[in-house]
Amino acid sequence: MVKKFLEFLSNDEVETIHATSTKVLETVGVEIENENAMKIFAEAGANVDFANKRVYISEGLVKEALEKVPSEVKLYGFDEEHNLVFADRNIYFNPGSTALYILDRETMNMRRPTSKDFADFVRLTDFLEHIHAQSTAMTVSDVPDAVVDRFRFYIILKNSVKPIIAGAFTIEGLYDMKHMLEIVVGGEEALRKRPCLLIDVCPSPPLKWSKLTSQNLIDSAGFNIPIEIIPAPQLGSTAPATLAGLLVQHNAEFLSGLVLTQLVNAGVPVVYSGSPSLMDMRYGTGCVGNIEVVMLSAAYAQIARMYHIPSGAYLGISETKIIDVQTGLESAIGLITGTLAGINCITGPGMLGFENCQSFEKLVIDNEICGMALRIMKDVNVSDETLAFELIKKVGPGKHFLSEKHTLKWFQIEEYIPSPVLDKIGKPRWESMGAKDTLKRAKEHVDKILTEHHIKPLTSDKEKELNSFMAEIMKREPRTS
Questions:
Q1: CA distance 58 to 36
Q2: Which residues pair with 271 in a beta bridge?
Q3: Could you give the 3-state DSSP secondary structure of residue 199?
Q4: In terms of CB atoms within 10 Å, which of 140, 291, 303, 380 comes out highest?
Q5: Which residues are CB-contacts of 402 (< 8 A; sequence separation ≥ 6)?
Q6: Pairing of β 84-86 and β 73-75
Q7: Residue 112 has what DSSP assignment?
Q8: Would the pTM count as exceeding 0.85?
Q9: What's the average model confidence in pLDDT over 265-288?
Q10: C-alpha distances in angstroms, 220 versus 43, 289, 415?
Q11: What domains, with CATH codes, occur in the chain?
């Protein structure tokens, strides 16, 4: 394993950012549009201005929360092969979430996704070995807005066995998603023992929690569902224009949410995540592919390590609207740097278009980047066997190692062997096979996976109950679009 993580802050600088964040919470406070949340803080001794919906959180409450939160988050798959433990040096990837568009597989133009698109995307994700969890990757356009958060969750449950990282658009949505999981795993107690959902909850920068997101925090904590808190401050827009200033605000927003979770249910697991961005002042665009976003993510991951909490980040995303050189450049820098920084849960593969578009082809290309990033984490294996002195002595000068048993064993261990998406063949053979570029090979790889990959279906009883519950949701929610 890599001996030391990539770091952008000294230990003293991490401590200074923490101290400044707690000062912000004590003196500036956070706005919370939720009576229940304000009462929870008040009962814990926080200074709460109910009239102005402002909560001032003491350093003592922050310290207590940090002492209670676990140092790892366990997330279970729907089989035994896909369990994840967010802790230490474990790195996992999942697709970017909640895109409003997909890159059409025929025209390569952006359009709104359908339920069929999302079901195919979920099956593709289920197959890819370096994409470890599902996300509610896109917002489908062919169901009413009022139920879209639950419908896309329903699609995942029917098309994958990997654990899920998702968010709710409504207060009721979280309850319904929990019940869907209970149907699949066998009840409330089974879900508590083997949580298979990491719920995403985002404050509103700067320093604000909406009624919805704060209630999702309260309910998730009460259900003992692991929580990923995702501040999303924007450099120079909804946060200061300095990296250090953004980190202070980001950390204060995270800590405010963390305190609330631990007041509701001491010991509920939490991932310290984020999706910072910057405002490109030339164009007025919010960018997530910039190198500063990567630096910020690595920096707050250091803060998470100081807190002994798993970290997460939105990386591997590009601002491009098509798949081109910039797409690969920004995605690779984000995914590989985030991995070297030791970020446990990296969300973003497949995503482009300012964090608003998903692509099947980009997902399989990013899967290769993720595989290479994980290979880097294994470092160089130095042992008597890998030093290969006796083998070098045996073969001697001017000969080759191709027929040696050592070679047969170790090339499979030491080398990252990519899928056909990456070009590793000689020019004559490449030309004879059609001289295909990366995008064409990615398209063919997606076609092959979607044709051949099928998961074991739910039992007939579970599928019937799940279908019935989804139908019930569709009937009781207003038919808006």
A1: 19
A2: 228
A3: strand
A4: 303
A5: none
A6: antiparallel
A7: -
A8: yes
A9: 96
A10: 20, 30, 42
A11: 67-377 (3.20.20.480), 384-414 (no CATH)
